[in-house]
Amino acid sequence: MSIPSFGLGTFRLTGQTVIDSVRNALELGYRAVDTAQIYGNEAEVGQAIAESGVRRADLFITTKIWPDNYARDKLVPSLRESLEKLRTDYVDLTLIHWPAPGNGVELPEYMSALAEAKALGLTRQIGISNFNIALTKEAIAAVGKGEIATNQVELSPYLQNLKLASFLNDQGITVTSYMTLAYGKVLKDPVLAQIADKHGATVAQVALAWALRLGYAVIPSSTKRENLASNLLARDLRLDADDMAKIGTLERNGREVDPKGLAPEWD
After folding, report:
1. Contacts of 40 (CB under 8 A, 6+ apart)
2. Which among 229, 225, 226, 189 is positioned nearest to 206, based on CA atoms?
3. How far is CA 218 from the centre of its chain?
4. Which residue in 30, 39, 70, 158 is the catalytic one?
5. CA-to-CA dists, residue 60 to 17, 73, 88, 232, angstroms
6. Distance of alpha carbon 231 from alpha carbon 222, whole angstroms
7. Per-residue pLDDT for 126 more than 80?
8. Contacts of 24 (CB under 8 A, 6+ apart)
9. Measured between alpha carbons, how far is 27 from 8 in angstroms, rounded to an integer?
């Protein structure tokens, strides 16, 4: 079991917009789709997948548990509801969406409940999202080494998170990068534009190829079919050592997502 290196994100996409995005992505060859309980689009994602004609066995579906459902008696039932919406008997990966310190449910409780969901066959793999190093260590202690498939974190050329990424790599935990384009901010970057011109690529492709070159999984989203197709081409873009070094200089701790009460103390 492993994490696909390239998937479709659905954050902030709802209704017909997310149905069209997933449908277009699957037609273009995407086979991994990332959603979450809080996105409010699991039913639409499930509809688009069901109508696509793509075999379930060929897909990799990820969802995330929201803090309201972290309690031992709520997590599994909430995941069953997600499965109904997604029209599937199982998901390939289920994540704890945010550590949400102080929300009343301790980490060992929700991690063991997540492990129970895996034991029940509701999810093939389990993981975490938005965890810092200290909390990742606690999560490993709760479920055992080798059980956490990924930590999905905000990561872009402007927020490179090298300390956390290095730790996860040492632990054999895949880094999944979300917000790789920093809400589109990196698209205007002159350094990335120069690298894009050099390779005859788009800036978005360069940013995604940078993350892929580092061994991260990426889940970019788009409402436009042409952008979905263009993003896929990042898999074939080979950045050289000079390109990677230039992108390395762009770090500016440019965090875009930091919700109070949900986020940890970042590394």
Report:
1. 14
2. 189
3. 7
4. 39
5. 21, 27, 11, 16
6. 9
7. yes
8. 225, 228
9. 12
Going by C-alpha positions, the residue among 258, 264, 218, 213 that lies closest to residue 34 is 218
- Tens of pLDDT, residue by residue over 190-203, are 999 999 999 999 99
pLDDT band at residue 90, thresholds of 50, 70 and 90? very high
Query: How far is residue 244 from each of residues 3, 76, 116, 206, 213, measured CA to CA in Å?
Result: 23, 42, 41, 10, 9
pTM of the model: 0.97
Backbone angles phi, psi at 253, to 5 degrees: 55, 45
Is residue 178 part of the annotated active site? The answer reads: no
Amino acid at 74: K
Evaluate if residue 102 carries a pLDDT over 90: no
Full DSSP string of 221-238: --S-HHHHHHHHGGGG--
Contacts of 74-77 spanning 24+ positions with Cβ under 8 A: 75/110, 75/113, 75/114, 75/116, 75/117, 76/113, 76/116, 76/117, 76/120, 76/122
Average pLDDT over residues 127-134: 98
Q: Find out whether 63 and 94 touch, Cβ atoms under 8 Å.
A: yes
What distance lies between CA 38 and its chain's CA centroid?
14
What is the structure's pLDDT at 1?
62
